[in-house]
Amino acid sequence: MSELDPKVAYLVDRATRDDDSDEDALIASLEDDSELDAFREQRLQQLHSEFDKARRLRANEHGTYTEIKDEKALMDITTSTKLCVVHFFKPDFNRCRIMDSHLESLAPSHYEARILKINVDNCPFLVTKLGIQVLPCVLSFIDGIGVDRIIGFEGLGRSPDSFTTRELENRLILAEVFARNKVTDEDERQRLQKSKMAQKEDEDDDDWD
């Protein structure tokens, strides 16, 4: 993915996280920058381009964590969308709920990708075709082609049962379905607080067939 100027990336991420952000004010902050005029103009062009891109993507449900109920609809989305992350889940699996909380936290910032989930009971053909046997299972797609698979919590965090949103974000950046790091310490704090408020349940067996 092409690299944005760091200041432009900061302003775009700030604006797309906050629906009340004033685009004109953010652009003015670049216009008041002390950098050379030529470099400032390049930044302004990038900023306008990224804002336009964000608007187009958000109009097509990017920036949300959406459950798809039909496997044909899911196949249509993954084959017609540049970047997709799909969580195959069962609602009564505790580990799937944990994965949900992380993906729900990531979705608003990472509007560059569609972030979806589907109950495995609603997609028997895909479960068989993709060989899904352990849940949660998170697949990343670029132009309809699978590029990464997270089985359970494998490869996430320092322990088998615990990982942070930033660690999941890093994995999806490596898969090239996310553009750059956007998770903040405040994001992580809010997610943990929300998780603690949820009712604690016993760990489910994550093997599924």
UniProtKB/TrEMBL annotation:
Domain Thioredoxin: 76-152
UniProt-listed InterPro entries: Thioredoxin-like_sf, Thioredoxin_domain
Pfam families given in the database record: Thioredoxin
Superkingdom, taxonomy of origin: Eukaryota
Renumbered residue ranges of the record's region Disordered: 184-209
Protein name: Thioredoxin-like protein
Species name: Dothidotthia symphoricarpi CBS 119687
